[in-house]
């Protein structure tokens, strides 16, 4: 039984990895797009290992017998294994049939937002924004300007930010993104507090249009990014939720 579990786990995990990385875009919920080839290669390798093990052990899997022909697969012999080992199938089958969602408001509400680092000496100043129309911006760029841009290039401009809703305390809420360097395990929170609009449901993806709401002393850690909203629009969730540069088309108004 122990060998059966090992072989089937290899096969299920391999098929699951290929399902989320080769046949769908679900892998983007967990890792950066550049890791797709590695996931595909890992899935193929697991399937090959499982197939080789199955061929070596015979199919259907043969259970070891003693030299007297008696079965040792009663759970207490040398080939047996604890019944709890079957629980190892849970993560394998979850990846295959019910891929967990991307990180969202639960993570964002429990981690402090990390504003982008202040420009070091010798770096160019924040470039000026366009003079007319609404300026689409990433939360990363908006947060950096709101906290560190002492030239206040955000002043007088209407901007558009896209992210998911993170509820705050006492009725406050934030438009948020999670950015990753490698995978969801190293996710960092970017969130901008929204003033002047009722909060849509948690985890709903929205586009917020509005103007910069100065908070704290600019150029210090006391500053925080905030926006006075003039419009909040519900939008579909992007395929790559960790790509802060995604531009999503507006959908129905938020509620």
From TrEMBL:
The chain crosses the membrane at residues 39-55. It comes from the Bacteria. Residues 153-242 form the DUF1980 domain. Keywords: Membrane, Transmembrane, Transmembrane helix. The keyword Transmembrane applies. InterPro entries: DUF1980 (IPR015402), DUF1980_C (IPR048447), UPF0703_membrane_permease (IPR052955). NCBIfam families: TIGR03943 family putative permease subunit. This is DUF1980 domain-containing protein. It comes from Streptomyces bingchenggensis (strain BCW-1).
């Amino acid at each position: 039984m122990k060998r059966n579990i090992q072989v089937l786990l290899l096969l299920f995990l391999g098929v699951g990895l290929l399902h989320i990385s080769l046949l769908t875009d679900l892998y983007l919920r967990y890792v950066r797009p550049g890791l797709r080839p590695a996931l595909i290669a890992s899935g193929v390798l697991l399937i090959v290992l499982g197939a080789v093990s199955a061929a070596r052990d015979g199919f259907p899997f043969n259970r070891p017998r003693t030299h007297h022909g008696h079965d040792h697969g009663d759970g207490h012999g040398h080939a047996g294994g604890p019944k709890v080992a079957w629980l190892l199938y849970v993560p394998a089958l979850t990846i295959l049939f019910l891929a967990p969602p991307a990180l969202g408001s639960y993570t964002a509400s429990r981690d402090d937002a990390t504003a982008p680092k202040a420009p070091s000496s010798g770096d160019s100043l924040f470039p000026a924004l366009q003079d007319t129309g609404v300026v689409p911006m990433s939360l990363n760029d908006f947060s950096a300007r709101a906290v560190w841009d002492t030239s206040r290039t955000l002043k007088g401009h209407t901007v558009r930010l896209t992210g998911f809703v993170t509820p705050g305390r006492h009725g406050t809420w934030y438009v948020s993104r999670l950015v990753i360097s490698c995978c969801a395990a190293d996710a960092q929170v970017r969130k901008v507090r929204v003033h002047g609009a009722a909060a849509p449901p948690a985890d709903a993806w929205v586009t917020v249009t509005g103007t910069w709401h100065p908070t704290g002393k600019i150029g210090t850690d006391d500053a925080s990014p905030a926006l006075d909203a003039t419009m909040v629009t519900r939008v579909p969730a992007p395929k790559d939720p960790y790509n802060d540069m995604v531009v999503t088309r507006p959908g129905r108004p938020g509620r």
